[in-house]
């Protein structure tokens, strides 16, 4: 009988015999011109997790999502349908909905001049309509945003692109997810958060996309799944990382109590109690699948050296005392990991401006980092240049390189 592969063997089985172990050039982590290009080519043109349908459970309930200068509102209409719109009044561009979340009982009313919109986004009435030309309810309603609901999670895309649908990208993970009733899970109280980090957004991805550092940097995760962690690199828009929980009871308070509690939870099937796994969705989203719950997080740039990281948690039984304890303990482990990663992210990002910095050397255990870098280069060809283009030319050079690549591909 063939013995099962170890985690390290599974990791190495995905790595080519020969590959380029270098990373992105230093200038790509501090160029403001490049950051502007990335916002358009990567963030606005690719799917972003905005919320879950159960964040907007009733007609009139809404969530907002701001990213890279664009503003969205996700609204459930009177007909029960969830829709996404640009949170931008057609009159003067004000936010129509000012709060992060809430309920509009009948209409959305712009706080600037009082224009009103129906819950399906159509224009209901401008203020003092006789002072304006006749306006069409649909043409002058809120502009819709492309949206896809996958297992209850609401994905939006501010601009269309050739990125496949979420369902298509996630199809290869269906076997892992078939017993998780994610559509009916609900938000866990107090778990939605946003943090600002003084780093380039790619530095966050670089640390998050490899488990080589777990044994050294994350004692709680090492006790949780230790040598049972491996990554599968980016393919068709997603990557996946696995952490198989070991049988060690754990010395860390959070891990010890988490494992003890998890073993006694009847609501969670036994085959779901042994694995934490993480699905990365290009270019910046991650869904963490834990026993009985999920967490998603994403980072996006404010500027070349300022990044927002956003997250939320959902579970099947939020009122269960046992589930509340599991969420609390999982949160403690995640918070500790976040703090440890933040320090590593800051150090690796600041290194790119050092006079001694001459690039990186990736381990086979970090091949997933390279796979994501290749994904970034494919969408933003100027990332292939070792040196930054002349001032005020990054966008132009990137367009020229994109056009040359497209012609060569024909």
**Overall mean confidence score, pLDDT:** 94
Number of strands: 18
Stretches where pLDDT is under 50 for at least 5 consecutive residues are: none
- Write the CATH fold name of the largest domain: Naphthalene 1,2-dioxygenase Alpha Subunit, Chain A, domain 1
The assigned CATH architecture of the largest domain is: Alpha-Beta Complex
**CA-CA gap between termini:** 49 Å
Strand content: 15-25%
CATH class of the largest domain: Alpha Beta
What percentage of residues falls in helices of 4 or more residues? 25-40%
Number of domains: 2
Report the sheet with the most strands, covering strand number, pairing sense and barrel closure: 8 strands, antiparallel
* Cα-based radius of gyration, to the nearest Å: 23 Å
Order of helices and strands: HHEEEEEEEEEEHHEEHHHEEHEEEEHHH
- Total helical segments: 11
Query: Which secondary-structure class do the elements indicate?
Result: alpha+beta
Shape: globular
How would you describe the oligomerization state of the chains in this entry?
single chain
**CATH homologous superfamily heading of the largest domain:** Naphthalene 1,2-dioxygenase Alpha Subunit, Chain A, domain 1
Keywords: 2Fe-2S, Dioxygenase, Iron, Iron-sulfur, Metal-binding, Oxidoreductase
Protein name: Aromatic ring-hydroxylating dioxygenase subunit alpha
Pfam families: Rieske, Ring_hydroxyl_A
GO molecular function, one term: 2 iron, 2 sulfur cluster binding
């Amino acid at each position: 009988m063939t013995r099962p592969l170890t985690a390290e063997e599974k990791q190495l089985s995905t790595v080519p015999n020969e590959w380029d172990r270098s990373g992105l050039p230093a200038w790509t982590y501090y160029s403001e011109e490049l950051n502007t290009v990335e916002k358009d080519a990567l963030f606005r043109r690719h799917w972003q997790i905005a919320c879950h349908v159960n964040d907007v459970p009733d007609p009139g309930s809404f969530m907002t999502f701001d990213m890279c200068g664009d503003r969205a509102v996700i609204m459930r209409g009177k007909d029960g349908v969830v829709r996404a719109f640009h949170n931008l009044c057609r009159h003067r561009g004000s936010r129509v909905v000012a709060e992060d979340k809430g309920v509009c009982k009948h209409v959305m009313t712009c706080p600037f001049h009082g224009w009103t919109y129906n819950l399906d986004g159509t224009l209901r009435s401008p203020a003092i309509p006789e002072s304006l030309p006749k306006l069409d309810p649909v043409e002058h309603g809120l502009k819709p945003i492309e949206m896809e609901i996958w297992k209850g999670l609401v994905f939006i895309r501010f601009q269309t692109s050739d990125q496949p649908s979420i369902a298509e990208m996630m199809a290869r993970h269906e076997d892992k997810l078939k017993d998780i009733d994610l559509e009916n899970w609900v938000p866990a109280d107090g778990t939605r958060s946003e943090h600002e980090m003084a780093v380039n957004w790619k530095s966050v991805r670089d640390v998050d996309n490899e488990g080589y550092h777990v044994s050294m940097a994350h004692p709680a995760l090492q006790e949780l799944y230790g040598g049972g962690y491996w990554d599968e690199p980016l393919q068709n828009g997603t990557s996946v990382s696995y952490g198989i929980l070991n049988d060690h009871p754990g010395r860390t308070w959070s891990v010890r109590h988490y494992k003890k509690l998890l073993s006694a939870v009847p609501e969670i099937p036994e085959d779901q109690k042994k694995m934490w796994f993480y699905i990365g969705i290009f270019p910046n989203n991650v869904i963490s699948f834990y026993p009985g719950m999920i967490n998603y997080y994403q980072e996006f740039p404010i500027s070349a050296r300022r990044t927002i990281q956003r997250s939320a948690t959902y579970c099947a039984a939020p009122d269960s005392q046992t589930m509340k304890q599991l969420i609390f303990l999982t949160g403690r482990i995640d918070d500790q990991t976040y703090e440890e990663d933040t320090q590593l992210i800051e150090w690796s990002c600041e290194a790119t401006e050092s006079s001694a910095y001459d690039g990186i050397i990736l381990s086979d255990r970090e091949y997933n980092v390279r796979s994501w870098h290749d994904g970034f280069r494919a969408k933003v060809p100027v990332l292939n240049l070792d040196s930054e283009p002349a001032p005020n030319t990054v966008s132009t050079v990137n367009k020229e390189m994109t056009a040359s690549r497209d012609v060569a591909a024909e």
